[in-house]
Write a structure and sequence with these properties.
Strand content of chain B: over 45%
Shape of chain A: globular
Number of strands of chain A: 11
Radius of gyration of chain B: 13 Å
Distance between the termini of chain B: 34 Å
Number of helices of chain B: 0
Largest sheet of chain B: 7 strands, mixed
Number of strands of chain B: 11
Helix content of chain B: under 10%
Order of helices and strands of chain A: EEEEEEEEEEE
Helix content of chain A: under 10%
Number of helices of chain A: 0
Structural class of chain A: mainly beta
Oligomer: heterodimer
Largest sheet of chain A: 6 strands, mixed
Strand content of chain A: over 45%
Radius of gyration of chain A: 13 Å
Chain lengths: ~110, ~110
């Protein structure tokens, strides 16, 4: 069972454009995490959102947790080639012992 | 120093063989994990250990046997390798199994079965 659905699956944009990635579920999560994975490397944590309605900013990246804690979004302003990578959302399953990942959004930003 | 290190980075072997992947973390974390990432980049939990004790086994075939000799190490042994085992295997660790703890991943082991 896939608990977390991410969209879009692929996104190719030009430098300077804005974009939003979505992470949706029918389940309520106590928290959601966003990771970025670059080719040949493991995922690296970007942010953890905990409170419904919470907004967190990390430079040009803005993360939002839905009021009902079932969904989250990642907005990137003025994307740069260095933002290229696989963006993964993840929430805890099994009484909080392991992360359930979405299938990811593969982002390509071209100069 | 690398926080979570896996060896080998690449593993090419024939079907039916037995192989092991090693993982070590120097972060002092209590919890370690093995994930499998398939060709479509889907990352799925396989095992989780907390203080050397198995706490998660997500319907993984018993050909896969994790071993944790101490809190800093979680190795993965795979018997009778099959074509479908080809994937990238990631080790990760976290301070504990709490909801807000970040997980730190190794760079993965790319396993290719011929």
């Amino acid at each position: 069972t896939q608990l977390l659905e991410q969209s879009p699956q692929f996104l190719s944009i030009q430098e300077g454009e804005n974009l939003t990635v979505y992470c949706n579920s029918s389940s309520v999560f106590s928290s959601l995490q966003w990771y970025r994975q670059e080719p040949g490397e493991g995922p690296v944590l970007l942010v953890t959102v905990v409170t419904g309605g919470e907004v967190k900013k990390l430079k040009r990246l803005t993360f939002q947790f839905g009021d009902a804690r079932k969904d989250s979004s990642l907005h990137i302003t003025a994307a740069q080639p260095g933002d290229t990578g696989l963006y993964l959302c993840a929430g805890l399953i099994n009484s909080g012992y392991a992360l359930n990942f979405g299938k990811g959004t593969s982002l390509l930003v071209t100069p | 120093d690398t926080a979570v290190s896996q060896t080998p980075k690449y593993l090419v072997t024939q079907m039916g063989n037995d192989k092991s992947i090693k993982c070590e973390q120097n972060l002092g974390h209590d919890t370690m994990y093995w994930y499998k990432q398939d060709s479509k980049k889907f990352l799925k939990i396989m095992f989780s250990y907390n203080n050397k004790e198995l706490i998660i086994n997500e319907t993984v075939p018993n050909r896969f046997s994790p071993k944790s000799p101490d809190k800093a190490h979680l190795n993965l042994h795979i018997n009778s390798l099959e074509l479908g085992d080809s994937a990238v295997y990631f080790c990760a660790s976290s301070q504990d199994a709490g909801a807000r703890q970040p997980q730190h991943f190794g760079d993965g082991t790319r396993l290719s079965i011929l």
